Amino acid sequence: MAARNLCGVLLVALFLHASRVESSVNQELSNIFNELWSLDVNRMTPGIDYNISVQNRAGFVSQGSTVVRDQAPQPLFSNVNEDKMKRTTTFFLLMKLLDNYERSSSVSEQYTPEETTEISLFLDAVLETQVMKRTHQYLVSKGKSSSDLTTFKNQLNWIWFHLYNRQRNTSPDSCGFEHIFVGETKTSSEIAGFHNWVQFYLQEKSTHLDYKGFKGGLQDQPDSDDHVLNLQFSWHGALKPVGSAFIGTSPEFEMGVFTILFLMNTERSTKVVVDIDQCQLELLVVRHGNSLGSAFPKLLSSNSRHVRQPAQ
Q1: Which residues form a coiled coil (predicted)?
Q2: In a domain, 254, yes or no
């Protein structure tokens, strides 16, 4: 009798936990992000445009340590269609921006006229996509952006590319784009940011980066067609114990998602749970004044495992 009552209590607890998880999903943001997902025609297709090998689960590493057991003897990316990326304007212009920044976050940054032009051309290309047009339309409807395209471009430029002081008592040394898309090192052993798959692939190809394995729960085995991955890696000798990135998505999709999340909230740190395609994600945005400090996805569930199955 006691065992039966215990089972009943456990079932109720599990049900209440599932209900809390389900109710925590931000449905409005899930809806707009799924619209952007459907509009992302530049997204790369797994198994066709690229191939990844997730391999084994990475172990625990304390922050600041560089001692790690490599659980992934092979690179994460075994193949990427670079010709297609170079033919896709936003990808091509994104790659031109990736070498514009100093790796160390303590080294001051200053844009050259050529780099300023590259940023402008990239934003122009992003604004031409249906993903960013829908993003703009949504933000205008919420009173967060001007309907004027030039004003919106300037807003994006400030959010993503405005240089600011990440380290105290220094000249401007960072921006949201550098932190999120390019990556930085706080010290010789610690990586900050670095949440973009294109930069990951290019750095891995040049042997500056070593994938150490995926991160996740004991019951969570990512697939090679997942578009979000929690992972561990080293870069120029520094280590990221737990990182994450969208995989295969276009730069305009990532910018659209995080721009909406940034502008729809005013807290210094904003965390939401959303369902996008077959994945449940936790999205985090950190503000640095009126610019992005950081932004990244965390995979909670893939292949619709978070969808409650009907009782048999």
Answers
A1: none
A2: yes
